[in-house]
Specification:
Fumarate Reductase Cytochrome B subunit, elongated, binds protoporphyrin IX containing FE, 2 strands, mainly alpha, 177 residues
Length: 177
């Protein structure tokens, strides 16, 4: 299949963000069960810093993507429509999950830090608002995890078929069909 590849910036943004997101899902999932103490505070601090990084990355990615359309896909029919729908929903998740997390953390008494540097918050200490945005955050992140599972299942299918689709998202020299 002679499909065009994504460009290097698109590939770097895709994989850089994939690593950050999987890390965040793992960290989020494990940190909420930690007992109160230094380990829990450190895990929450790292989660918020990485989450803010993800929030910045999606802004860069969307600005970049707006000027650089995806290479035309060789997929056709319902499968192509499903893949495109999942990609669009992944972008919705990548925007709203960190925003909900940021807003949840805005409505607390604690300062919000990005790797040690304090960042402005958009709220004030308010338990009700904090609980609402936490709930939204949890709904977004777990819906996003389900989308990622679907996306990876699709990618695995193409990997097994060896139809060249995965190569579109890999740097040229790494993949010889
Ligand atoms: C957190 C994990 C991931 C996220 C959030 C994510 C997100 C996305 C998005 C939004 C696109 C669409 C790019 C565009 O056209 O603008 C995309 C494309 C793609 N992703 Fe992922 N991805 C993730 C993990 C993976 C993994 C683990 C694989 C492979 C095993 C993979 C393989 C691909 C491929 C091959 C494409 C290009 C599909 C095509 O050519 O139509 N992704 N991804
Ligand atoms: C795409 C980015 C993000 C992902 C994938 C993510 C993922 C998660 C996950 C999986 C959880 C555990 C949910 C559960 O209780 O089952 C969680 C909780 C949490 N996240 Fe995030 N997160 C992201 C961004 C952020 C950001 C930007 C912030 C704040 C600046 C944040 C703050 C929190 C907080 C405070 C909790 C704990 C909620 C609680 O104690 O119930 N997250 N996150």
């Amino acid at each position: 299949m002679s499909a065009q590849r994504y460009t290097l910036p698109a590939i770097l943004l895709h994989w850089g963000q994939a690593v950050v997101i999987v890390w965040l899902l793992w960290l989020g999932w494990t940190m909420v069960d930690l007992p109160k103490g230094a380990e829990r505070s450190a895990a929450y601090g790292l989660h918020k810093s990485l989450g803010l990084l993800a929030m910045g990355l999606i802004v860069v990615r969307l600005l970049w993507r707006a000027r650089h359309p995806a290479p035309p896909s060789p997929a056709v029919g319902n499968e192509a429509r499903l893949a495109t729908a999942v990609h669009h929903l992944l972008y919705v998740f990548l925007v709203f999950a960190p925003v909900a997390g940021y807003l949840a953390s805005s409505f607390t008494q604690y300062p919000l830090k990005f790797f040690g540097v304090e960042v402005p918050k958009l709220g004030w200490p308010d338990e009700g608002m904090n609980a609402t945005f936490k709930l939204l955050h949890v709904v977004f992140v777990w819906s996003g995890a389900a989308l990622i599972a679907l996306h990876i299942a699709g990618a695995l299918k193409h990997a097994l078929l060896r139809d060249g689709m995965i190569a579109r998202m890999l740097p040229g020299r790494l993949f010889k069909k």
